[in-house]
């Protein structure tokens, strides 16, 4: 009678479990201790892996947090590839209503600590680390900005805003104040602010 074969360990599954544990540890620690106090050693200890495992996969703690953040967004079905609130950017024919809906959804996400803490950390780290900042822009910010641009371009072609409107600048006018208030805490970040922002920007874009 032959002996029963011993199952071969699944290295890929083990790696997936370790990677998932590292993601969860990094995001939890960013919220608990802040990015400045975050260390690879702390992530490794929380995840139950050796720190060399982390260094083998990522060159810095910023890279760990960025990848964990992208994974979180994908699993929560609000992909940063599609921008908060803009995964299906509405085009109802009412530009003001569409923009308010998107900005309100963005406000809700920015007020959610699970999203906001790592996003704020990555925004700040991206200034000090240009390579990380470029990846954050490419994977988190740029896709959503393009969706704003597409919607505003359609509005310009329909005559909803002035024909000479620079779509890139118009996008900045909508997104930048929201981001500034979120980063700096200069006032309440709520639906009322999002609605007022849209109204003020469209007053200028529509003209007389």
UniProtKB/TrEMBL annotation:
Q: Which UniProt keywords apply?
A: DNA-binding, Transcription, Transcription regulation
Entry's Gene Ontology molecular function annotations: DNA-binding transcription factor activity; transcription cis-regulatory region binding
User: Ranges for the HTH tetR-type domain?
Assistant: 16-76
Q: Name one Pfam family in it.
A: TetR_N
Which ranges of the sequence are annotated as binding DNA? 39-58
The keyword Repeat is assigned to this record: no
Q: Does the keyword Calcium apply?
A: no
Record's superkingdom?
A: Bacteria
Name of the protein described by the UniProt record: TetR family transcriptional regulator
InterPro entries in the record: Homeodomain-like_sf, HTH-type_TetR-like_transc_reg, HTH_TetR, Tet_transcr_reg_TetR-rel_C_sf, TetR_C
């Amino acid at each position: 009678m032959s002996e029963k074969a011993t199952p071969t360990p699944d290295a890929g599954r083990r790696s997936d479990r370790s990677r998932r544990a590292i993601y969860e540890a990094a995001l939890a620690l960013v919220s608990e201790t802040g990015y400045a106090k975050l260390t690879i050693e702390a992530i490794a200890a929380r995840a139950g892996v050796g720190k060399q495992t982390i260094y083998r996969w990522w060159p810095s703690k910023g890279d760990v947090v960025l990848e964990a953040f992208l994974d979180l967004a994908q699993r929560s079905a609000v992909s940063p590839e599609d921008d908060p609130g803009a995964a299906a950017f509405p085009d109802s024919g009412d530009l003001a209503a569409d923009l308010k809906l998107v900005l309100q959804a963005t406000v809700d996400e920015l007020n959610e600590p699970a999203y906001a803490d790592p996003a704020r950390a990555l925004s700040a780290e991206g200034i000090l680390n240009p390579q990380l900042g470029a990846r954050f822009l490419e994977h988190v910010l740029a896709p959503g900005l393009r969706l704003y641009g597409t919607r505003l371009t359609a509005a310009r072609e329909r005559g909803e805003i002035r024909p000479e409107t620079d779509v890139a600048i118009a996008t900045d006018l909508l997104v930048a104040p929201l981001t500034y208030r979120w980063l700096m805490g200069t006032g309440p970040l709520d639906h009322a602010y999002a609605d007022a922002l849209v109204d003020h920007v469209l007053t200028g874009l529509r003209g007389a």
